[in-house]
Amino acid sequence: SGGTVVLHQLTGTLATLEVSDGTATTEGTQAVTTLRVEGGTVFANSSGTIGTANMQGGTLDMSGAKVARTITALNLLEACTVVADDDVVTISTLSANLDRPYTLNVT
């Protein structure tokens, strides 16, 4: 029931990206001020910074592009999965609700 969207922007900032089902992919150099994932999958391939990523379910996969990028604040609020390559992804602040199961796969 969820759809697919690909956001390809060479410059600029997306204020808010909310995903509750389906698949969203970011490409190019765009930044995202606030990312909220409640379900589905986000493939974050853009080289732009994600200001705050609130994971309330679903998957955030940052393994698809080998370009340097940063998540300023990653908040694991509910059961979720995050995949990242630590050679190119920097997570400045990580906050986790330890009462909820989550998977953080850093390669």
Question: Can you characterise this structure?
Answer:
By secondary structure, this protein is mainly β. It contains no helices and eleven strands. The chain has strands at 4-9, 13-19, 23-28, 31-37, 41-44, 50-55, 59-61, 69-76, 80-84, 89-96, 102-106. The strands form two sheets. Strands 1-3-5-7-9-11 form a six-stranded parallel β-sheet, with no helix packed on it. Strands 2-4-6-8-10 form a five-stranded parallel β-sheet, with no helix packed on it. It is globular, with a radius of gyration of 12 Å.
Give a brief outline of the structure.
It is built from no helices and eleven strands.
Strand and helix order:
EEEEEEEEEEE
Topology, number of strands: 11
Unreliably modeled segments:
none
Q: Number of helix segments? A: 0
Residue fraction in strands: over 45%
Largest sheet: 6 strands, parallel
Helix content: under 10%
Distance between the termini: 31 Å
Which term fits the overall shape?
A: globular
Q: What integer value in Å does the Rg equal?
A: 12 Å
Judged by helices, strands and strand pairing, the structural class is mainly beta
Mean pLDDT: 92
What is the strand arrangement across the widest sheet? 1-3-5-7-9-11
Brief descriptors of the model:
107 residues, mainly beta, 6-stranded parallel sheet, 5-stranded parallel sheet, 0% helix
Layout of secondary structure:
Layout: E1 4-9, E2 13-19, E3 23-28, E4 31-37, E5 41-44, E6 50-55, E7 59-61, E8 69-76, E9 80-84, E10 89-96, E11 102-106
Parallel strand pairs: 1-3, 2-4, 3-5, 4-6, 5-7, 6-8, 7-9, 8-10, 9-11
